[in-house]
Design a protein that fits this description.
alpha/beta; binds 3-methyl-2-oxobutanoic acid; binds zinc ion
Length: 523
């Protein structure tokens, strides 16, 4: 049974008539559209972890999932709605009864719930996907919004593929759903087809021709198929849209969504041009980016704007000289604005608890006393193997510590014979005393490790993705391994770090297998 009415109404600052033109509403869809990135499945605990950070980042809306699609998504939305009280929580639904009731149910405990209903409106989708005439589309959209309105005041409607919808028909759809009670109308460029000027005109056309447009917030949602998602979003803001839908690191379907950090920093840095800002605490951007890339396994390209490793690095001598003389010669933003610590002092073997604790804090992480102590011990072990410990090393250790996967199996020892038939011998520990030991071969050393872990745990995983990268530079850099494994139709991600890349690979695979084992155990 879906609940009766839920939540405490539309947040005052989302009401169209009162929406502040100077503060753009940031609707984060990392946990919904972002999670639709190929290879980025998150479990409910990981989603909750990201939601906590999104709340610290101070986004206005978190789209927590599409609950009708899976039990896991339903659980994620419910957990987030229960815990995150200071942000609006949106739940996605097609314009059908089953989805809307499920979305309402998932938001039962939310303080500020929003149901986000969508239905495709473009000719291509009407003809081939929905096989519905225009009148039927309007009827279904109105019915969906009215149904959602039975449960919540805050209802968003998205005409999917809006940018390829006939502009006049789009006006009709938008006007009808606002009449039906939609408080936000979102205009998606679903397939990343729009061009900035054209997309801005689409928004302008709605503002000029939808009679009741003042009763709803105009939102935009852009995909990056032509690399124009951020440019299109900014052009739409300039044309009058006051909500932007985006994701951390720009992750999302296919080429991804518009990147939150790029939009927010563009609005902030070029306030002179846009005249808008956001409520985002920009100094939390880097920490959020790291948490999302760590948990999704989707690494950020080095030259990515704002959050890439090179975003604030100056290689050329001329640039370095200029920056040293006057920072603004080559830097349009301060690294500290996005959360990059000013200090570049590296820690090492002789650094004590106090220096370590201080650095963890500067990096923007909150650790309990117990977590701090354990991470410090890991830091000391690492410092024995590695002379200089960089911020990225510390962050990798913290992410390991924060990973909430229980360790049913732990790696006790591992040895590899790389001869003509690569063979791995592994001992796994269960609890304090029980040791399982075995060895088997593979096509290469990594394959042999994964096969031996399968043999020891009795869980056969199909490896979908495996990657390894150096966390910092230098021969003694920490290696971060990431794997995606399929077991009985479900995908599991694992990640681990070590100065030994073979060990990191074994631990990452075991991390994924532990998730399977715990799930089976619960069942
Ligand atoms: O891209 C899209 O059209 C969407 C909708 C569900 C808003 O993600
Ligand atoms: Zn989308």
């Amino acid at each position: 049974m879906p609940p009766a009415r839920i939540g405490t109404g539309v947040r005052p600052y989302f009401v169209a008539e009162k929406v502040s033109m100077s503060k753009i509403i940031i609707f984060d869809t990392t946990l919904r559209d972002g999670e639709q990135s190929p290879g980025a499945s998150l479990d409910p605990k990981e989603k909750l972890q990201i939601a906590r950070q999104l709340s610290i980042l101070n986004v206005d809306v978190i789209e927590a999932g599409f609950p009708v699609t899976s039990e896991g998504d339903f659980k994620s939305v419910s957990n987030i709605a229960k815990e995150i009280r200071d942000v609006s929580i949106a739940s996605l639904a097609r314009s059908v009864e089953k989805d809307i009731e499920c979305a309402a149910k998932s938001l039962k405990s939310a303080k500020f719930p929003r149901i986000h209903v969508f239905l495709a409106t473009s000719k291509i989708h009407r003809k081939f996907k929905l096989v519905k005439a225009k009148e039927e589309i309007i009827k279904t959209a109105v019915k969906g919004v009215k149904r959602a309105k039975k449960y919540v005041d805050d209802v968003e409607f998205s005409p999917e593929d809006a940018s390829r919808t006939e502009p006049d028909f789009l006006v009709e759809v938008v006007e009808s759903v606002i009449d039906a009670g939609a408080t936000t109308v979102n205009i998606p460029d679903t397939v990343g087809y729009a061009i900035p000027e054209q997309y801005a005109s689409l928004i302008k056309n709605l503002k000029e021709n939808v009679k009741n447009i003042n009763k709803a917030v105009i939102s935009i949602h852009c995909h990056d198929d032509l690399g124009l998602a951020v440019a299109n979003s900014l052009a739409a803001v300039k044309a009058g849209a006051t909500q932007v839908e985006c994701t951390i690191n720009g992750i999302g379907e296919r080429a991804g969504n518009a990147s939150l950090e790029e939009i927010v920093m563009a609005l902030k840095t070029r306030k002179d041009f846009f005249g808008h800002t956001t409520r985002i605490k920009t100094h939390e951007i880097i920490a959020t980016s790291k948490i999302v890339s760590g948990l999704t396994g989707l690494w950020v390209q080095r030259n990515k704007a704002i959050v890439g490793e090179n975003a604030f690095a100056h290689e050329s001598g001329v640039h370095q000289d200029g920056v040293l003389k006057e920072r603004t010669t080559y830097e349009i933003m301060k690294p500290e604005e996005v959360g990059l610590p000013k200090t570049k002092i590296v820690l090492g073997k002789l650094s004590g608890r106090h220096a370590f604790k201080k650095r963890v804090k500067t990096l923007g992480y909150e650790l309990s006393d117990e977590e701090l102590e354990h991470t410090f011990q890991q830091f000391k072990l690492l410092a024995d193997k590695k002379k200089e410990i960089y911020d990225q090393d510390i962050e990798a250790l913290i992410q390991d510590e924060k990973s909430e996967t229980p360790h049913l199996y732990e790696l006790d020892s591992l040895s590899i014979n790389c001869g003509p038939v690569p063979t791995a011998s592994i001992k796994l520990r269960i609890g304090k005393d029980k040791i399982l030991a075995d060895s088997t071969k593979g096509d290469g050393p990594i394959d042999a490790i994964f096969n031996t872990i399968d043999l020891l745990t009795g869980i056969k995983g199909t490896l979908l993705d495996y990657s390894i990268r150096a966390v910092t530079s230098g021969k003694d850099a920490l290696g971060e391994a990431s794997v995606e494994v399929e077991v009985k139709g479900n995908n599991y991600r694992g990640r681990a770090v070590s100065t030994d890349t073979i060990e990191a690979s074994a631990k990452a695979y075991l991390n994924a297998i532990n998730k399977v084992a715990i799930k089976h155990r619960k069942k």
